[in-house]
Please model this.
Amino acid sequence: MADDTLPNLLHTYLEIGQHMGLSARQVEHLDKADPTFPTFKLGRIVCARRTSLDEWLRDREAQAKAEGRADA
Model:
């Protein structure tokens, strides 16, 4: 699933959203609503690592399955 030719570091909500299949606005909302969302700032620019986002998504999926949610 991981493409080693792509840079691991994503800059801006737009790039993060493109990686996750979400809009920049959805990512910004998620970032503000969930303190575990793996973003950080370089100066004024919000950034995230592809690997951290993928791991965060796997953890969220595992948590949903453990809670027995039907949509997981």
User: Anything to note?
Assistant: The CA atoms of residues 38 and 53 lie 6 Å apart. The chain is about 50% helix and 15% strand. The mean pLDDT is 90.
